[in-house]
Amino acid sequence: MGESSSIAPYWFRVNRGDLDAMISHFGVNITDMAIPALLLAGIGVPLGFSVSHMLPGFSVGFLLAGLWVTWSAHGLAKRTGRSTVTSQVFGINVPSSTAFAISIMLPVYQHTHNLVDCWASGAAAVVWMGVFKLISAPFSRYIRRVIPRAAVMTVFAAAMYSYLSMTIVVRLFSSPLLGIIALTVVLCGVFAKIPLTKFNLSPFLVAWVIVLVVGLATGDLDITWTGMHLTSPWHIAPHLAQYMVRDISYFSVIVPMSVYAILQDFASVEAAQRVGDEYSVGQTLLMDGVCSVIIGVAGGIIPTVMYAVHPSYKHLGARISYHFWVPIVMLLVVITGLSMPAIDLFPWSLRAAVIAYVSIGVGRAAITNIDHKYVNAFLLGIIIPGAYLIQSTIQQSLAALKIHITPEISHVLDKAIYWGPISGMANGFLMLVLVITSISVCLIDRKFIAAALWSLTGSISAWLGLINAPRFGWGEAPDYALAWLVGTAVLLLVWAAVPKDFKAHRNDSQVDMTSFKS
Predict the structure, then answer these.
(1) Distance between terminal CA atoms of the chain?
(2) CA within 20 to 30 Å of 216's CA: 23, 283, 498, 506, which one?
């Protein structure tokens, strides 16, 4: 009785776990919010324009999500009579925001040199992602059954080790001194599990304070103070509907990233269930989709997702109040015009150290949550992002040099580094990871028909330009589509030719060739 009586609206109460979670969650999201703006600044998009037009819309959707997950957690606490319920962890989808900036907004700006075109194309992509989430919500249970869990975990790892590890972690040494300090503190606090300060503060908070002090003292950190001024939390991009039509050609980026976000929402619900908090997958997708649409309509270029770190926050002691207050603080930062100073307070060196830890955590979680017999499929899947890293690096470099990738440039690149095959593997690579890993998992289980269906999915996706092609359209990658179709036929022939006892589901990852009789 005493426990249930303490459930009365308690989202205003902040315990130590909530405070730690608030600091961590605000720091992560204010840091991540700046990433696409900083990436675009490298190709000439003024940081001031990004901060004033492209970023504020996120605070509106984030506030709505904070209220939504707080109310959901409070409802769960009332139904179960538990005061230990933890709110779902909602925040910025860094792989998707990085992908939209590099693979959509960058080429648009390089082609038009128009800030509004660049901005509106990113906002439209966020709206499209929200639409796909909303469409998938009623079919969430079916989708969870169809996609192999090992393939889901491989997609997570591939996203982390491409968009985050290599694209962002390399910036750890943008300031070597601050980078080494941040990484060392984080490793001491997380890897060695050494309590930092007698109050056992979060290693990310300690790293931030030390980096801030050292950076200001050495001049490696420069904070731009623009003064406080009222700023609207939304700037609706002009002609948004028109840009949504234009963005259909970028479905090769938007659809795979939407699939990634949907799978991440699934994983977040499963993670919460493992520690006793039962949330609905359908409602999670619905909320995420609504917030994404609102963010895009408000002019934001920041896609969102539900984080699969629920057990960590619960272990930290976080309950409900942390997710009630963080979006409010974020909104206050935006409307008071303090976004630029707040971004400067979290330098690239600190961002990279945090992302490095997050990437390692996701990789470890992927490996530990995959059955040992599927490890080969996992290892094959995470090779694929290497092509994207090469492609994106070259594209950003050429964009900074104001060089367009013409057929002549492509011909030279093809001779030097096999640009054609690299582009074929890089375009829609997360969807490609999902297809190849799912085929591998099905074959490990000797599910030849299922493997053939995934190969057929690859053929259809290539024909539509969702994989192996730079843009969405009809007949975009016919050579790849034919290849996947032939692969489907090969799998069906193998299924028809192998002995019946060989088709049975196997319990190990080794193939006993002596049982394969002619």
Answers:
(1) 70
(2) 23
